[in-house]
Amino acid sequence: MKLQRPILVGGLGLSFALWLLDTLQDSFVQVGEVSLLSLIAVGGSLWLFKQNRSNHNIMLQEELPSDRATVENAISKAEAVVNQLASVAKDDTETKNFACLLQNQISELQAEIDRKEIQLAVTGGKFVGKTSIIQILQQNAVQLFANPKFYETAPLFLEGNADSKVLAHATTYDYVLFVTNGDLTDTEYQAWKQLNSTKGRAMLVFNKQDQYVPDERASILSSLKQRLQCDVVTISASPVPIKVRKHSSDGTVQEWMEQSAPEVQQLVEQLSKVITSNSQQLIWAATVKKANLLKTEAKTALNLVRVGQANPVIEQHQWIAAAAAFANPLPVLDILATAAINAQMVIDLGNIYQQQFSLEQAKTVAAEMGGLMLKLGLVELSTKAISTVLKTNAVTYAVGGVIQGISAAYLTRVAGLALVEYLQAQEISVSSGNPLNLDKLRQTLQNVFQQNQQVALLQGFVSQGVKRLVPASECV
Ligand SMILES: Nc1nc2c(ncn2[C@@H]2O[C@H](COP(=O)(O)OP(=O)(O)O)[C@@H](O)[C@H]2O)c(=O)[nH]1
Ligand SMILES: [Mg+2]
Question: Would the CB of 130 count as within 6 Å of ligand 1?
Answer without folding.
Answer: yes
